[in-house]
Design goal:
Oligomer: single chain
Shape: globular
Order of helices and strands: EEHEHEHEHHHEHHEEHHHHHHHHH
Strand content: 5-15%
Distance between the termini: 78 Å
Largest sheet: 6 strands, mixed
Length: 465
Amino acid sequence: MKCGQGTAALVIRVGDPFCRACFREYFVHKFRAMLGKNRVIFPGEKVLLAVSGGPASSAMVRQVQEGLSREAAKRLRFVPGLVYVEEGAVRGQSPEQREQTLAQMETLLQATGFPYHLLHLEEALQLPPSILQPGPERAGTPGPSYKRAVDSFIQQQRQDGDSGTSVPAHSTQDTPAAAPATPGLPDAAQTQELLRSFEAAGTATAREELLEMLRTHLIVQTARDKGYAKVMMGESLTRVATKLLTNLSLGRGAFLAVDTGFTDQRHGDVMVVRPMRDYTAKEIAFYNFFFSVPTITVPPLFTKRREKPSIHQLVERFLLGLQEEFPSTISTVYRTGEKLSPEPAKASSESQRCLLCLCGLDTDGEEELALEPTLILEEPAAGVESKAAYIPLLCYSCRLTFKELGPLDTLPPYVRAEGQRRIRRTRKTRSPARAEGVGTLLHPTVALLGQVPLLRDTPEVGEDS
């Protein structure tokens, strides 16, 4: 279709045949155009690429490799690093299979020549509570500041003279030779603690959400510790469209722009970007096949009940089934998500931020709790460990997931620690009169009608009630 000379090797859409050379040019241009259009990655910045070994993240790494090579027409100017989170424990792999997968991933990461970090999902249990507190936003925004950053970078290169390296500002500690040794498998006690959390989850959907939360927090904390300003996620167009409908089903409609957009700034000091969100799964699969991009397949999330899959799997099957009959289904869903604004997800203060997902609360505090008749609205200070005390700190979607995660002691320690800190801080700001009314059970109708103060003064409600 483009050159009119080569033999067609792939039909992306009806009437759009590509030969291999034109398809490669098309694929590379789309990646560069996505980064150039948004202008959020500044020259010389350290960018952490989250690699899972799947098709999308592997293709993303290959694009960065080619963009940093000397033969590239418009070279990328950031400093890349790689991170891989091993999740074999919750995916039903044996210790031997986990070690084999880890060795294969390390071989692939070493071949890139970039510094890399190998992590285990069990390490998320040792995360500090500060991961649930947004860090200070870095200076610099798209627009004039980006142009100034490019100009200063070019001037610095000219001053250096003979420093014509392909990777800008590559320091000694970022060389592959300084990469850490392959970490061994975590202790059996840590693995059992992680498995206990996943087994306590009541549904496959809750396990999927818990896995996503732990993985994201672990990657963001690694970026903070190693000084990376941005994190690249390899989410394809197909995955973004599936995630959009899944989040609608889970009650995260207010946060769709943050969960599926090109940028995600909820963490403050670390920005998450999704440069692969314009590629369909078909395009990525053929690119990896044509140009020999190595990938590693990992089993899906382990579940004992195959007949009841998660909402994530149901939505994916639904979309892929429609895509076979109507080829524009996934792209239509994706383009619809492009029109959403991230404003509803912003929080004005820490008290208005969800404890788990860090988005703005989309509920009206205790009035929302009235939907559950037996929920304790206020508790004594000694009852901090009660699960009900955490509910006002969560958005609507996380409340649904929170209910399915079993007892409170099965939650990650950093979530419990941060929740206790916010609960204590909230109790200190309460008025003395309100602090006295603890342990009160309210009927939903009474709470919705605003009768909470009157209930405590009513003679019929006493210690015997």
